[in-house]
Each structure stands twice: as structure tokens, then as C-alpha cells.
Design a protein that fits this description.
single chain, 254 residues, alpha/beta, 8-stranded parallel sheet, 12 helices, cytoplasm, TIM_sf
Length: 254
């Protein structure tokens, strides 16, 4: 059975002290909830906080540590960058790749993301690979062609064994930070399409085993309906992950 995952992407928010306090609150709240063995929680704080937050999480054991990005090289003269191997050494288990903000603001393309993907997998980490269309693409009725191309160019060069480690996050760009959210029917339609593409590229078993998250303004109010769709396996949560009560309510949606 594929995993259900709720992953909190803090982006460039929180001070160190506020981040530690937030994690302590979430850890205490989640520890009091009965989560199925199939549910995982991931927190992806800013890079400077990873080591300290990782130590807090290891004590509770209910939440896994994620990173928001990594460099494609294992080491070298790349000032300001962090490698997958370095992330692994401080307890990171998941790495977000291909987020629309990285694609838009830092011009990350399929070729670069392919290299990062290989680096993450080589370090024994699990990528959360993001895909998603803009409002213009959706209004032009080109959503499925666009997503099919992102999947083909970004992921489908992986071997079966490599692909088994991948989590996919569908993030409609028009719904990120805008307050707009895809309806549960829209989310299900796209997630089912993604699963169909996986089956074509690999096989039906791979399609059924792949965790596909929704990542567009999911919150405590709509998470239960979204996660109730047969092909929606959880969420990549932005703003709501910065509030302990909201994030915990989203986790409890399972």
C-alpha cells in the first residue's frame, strides 16, 4: 500500500527560535494523535535549521526531516550551496525538487532537475518531485499535455528501482499562495491522469505504489475532502504548515 504523506514546506519563513518552537508544538500535538502506520509527516524548514530541528524530530519519531532544495554536485567550489550528501549527513530523508518557485525564480529546467534528482537518489534520499501548470496553461486547455511533458522530461528517464523512491507533488501554480484551491474533483482528475502516465511509462504496479501529493493552498478546512479522493495521497503544505494547529488538523484529516 502506498504511503499517505503530509509535508510542510516552510519556504523562507520563520526565525530559528520560532522554528524550534513550532516543531515542538507540532511534535507534541502529533504525538497525541493515533496515526496509521501508512501515514508519514515531513517538515522541510530552511537549511540553517535542519540539524537542530532534525534532533528534535528524532526524539519524537513521528515526523521526518525534509529539505527544500539541494545542489546537483556532491561537493566542490559552489559557494552558498548544499549537497544531497551533506543533507543526508544531518538526518534529512526527503528533498523537494522542481517546486514552481525554483523553476520560475531560479530558472531550474528539466536538465538541471534531472541532475539534482540523480544526486538525491545517489545519497539515499527520497525526492518530492513537483509538477504543475500555470493559470494560462489551464485556461488554454493544455494542462494534461503540459504535465505529461514535465513527467516525461523530469522523471521517466529513471530506472524502475530509482522511480520507486520518488514522491510526486502536483501543485497547480495558479493555486499556490493565492487562496485559490483546485476543487477535489479537479485534483482527483489530475492525480488520476498522473497515475495513468506512470502506468504507461513503467507498469500498473508502479502507478499504484507511487504517492502523489496535492500542493495548492490545501488547508485545515479542505484537506479532508481533498485527501478523500482515491488518487490524492496527501499534501505538500505551504502557509498552513507554519501554524501548528492548522498543520496538525491537516494531518488528522487521514
Amino acid at each position: 500500500m502506498r504511503k499517505n504523506i503530509v509535508a510542510g514546506n516552510w519556504k523562507m519563513n520563520m526565525t530559528y527560535q520560532d522554528g524550534l518552537a513550532l516543531v515542538s508544538e507540532i511534535t507534541n500535538m502529533v504525538a497525541d494523535e493515533t496515526l496509521g502506520a501508512n501515514v508519514e509527516v515531513v517538515i522541510a524548514p530552511p537549511a540553517p535549521f535542519l540539524h537542530s530541528i532534525g534532533k528534535l524530530l528524532s526524539e519524537g519519531g513521528r515526523i521526518h526531516l525534509g529539505a527544500q532544495n539541494c545542489h546537483q554536485k556532491e561537493s566542490g567550489a559552489f559557494t552558498g550551496e548544499v549537497s544531497a550528501k551533506q543533507l543526508q549527513s544531518v538526518g534529512v530523508e526527503y528533498v523537494i525538487l522542481g517546486h514552481s518557485e525554483r523553476r520560475q525564480y531560479f530558472h531550474e529546467d528539466d536538465e538541471l532537475l534531472s541532475q539534482k534528482l540523480k544526486a538525491v537518489l545517489a545519497a539515499g534520499l527520497k525526492p518530492i518531485f513537483c509538477i504543475g501548470e500555470s493559470l494560462e496553461t489551464r485556461e488554454a486547455d493544455e494542462t494534461f499535455d503540459f504535465l505529461a511533458a514535465q513527467l516525461k522530461n523530469g522523471l521517466f528517464h529513471l530506472s524502475n528501482e530509482e522511480f520507486d523512491q520518488v514522491v510526486i507533488a502536483y501543485e497547480p501554480i495558479w493555486a499556490i499562495g493565492t487562496g485559490k484551491t483546485a476543487t477535489s474533483e479537479q485534483a482527483q482528475e489530475v492525480h488520476a491522469f498522473i497515475r495513468e502516465q506512470i502506468a504507461r511509462a513503467y507498469d500498473a504496479e508502479a502507478a499504484q505504489n507511487t504517492t502523489i501529493l496535492y500542493g495548492g493552498s490545501a488547508n485545515a478546512q479542505n484537506a479532508r475532502e481533498l485527501f478523500g479522493q482515491p488518487d490524492v495521497d496527501g499534501g505538500l503544505i505551504g502557509g498552513a504548515s507554519l501554524k501548528s494547529r492548522d498543520f496538525t488538523e491537516i494531518i488528522k484529516s487521514f
